[in-house]
């Protein structure tokens, strides 16, 4: 048996790759291309149009003004948001500014967490103080 031959992709793999290519092609052209594809899907076969509509809603392509691929999403402010421009002074300035913004963002989130903890502690202390009080008597 020859083990040097790569396994042939299944039909589902080929269909998935084709659909991913169509999705990427439509994403490059924007929301209008998705709407045209949906309308053509309804004209050709209404379940196909309904499937495209469902996918557009599920993937948020229907309501976003510009869809970004899942591999383009960045955490935080995204240091690798833009490629180097070739202007070293600007690239260094941008890098420093983004680092400063990330630090300020992290400090602000820490501050909010401390505020929440202080509020929770104050509410708990108030509950405990009220719990130790005898119930008010009614006349």
Automatic annotation (TrEMBL):
Ranges annotated as spanning the membrane: 33-58
InterPro entries: DUF2852 (IPR021273)
Pfam families the record matches: DUF2852
Highest taxon above the source species: Bacteria
Keywords on record: Membrane, Transmembrane, Transmembrane helix
Protein's name in the database: DUF2852 domain-containing protein
Organism: Paracoccus aminovorans
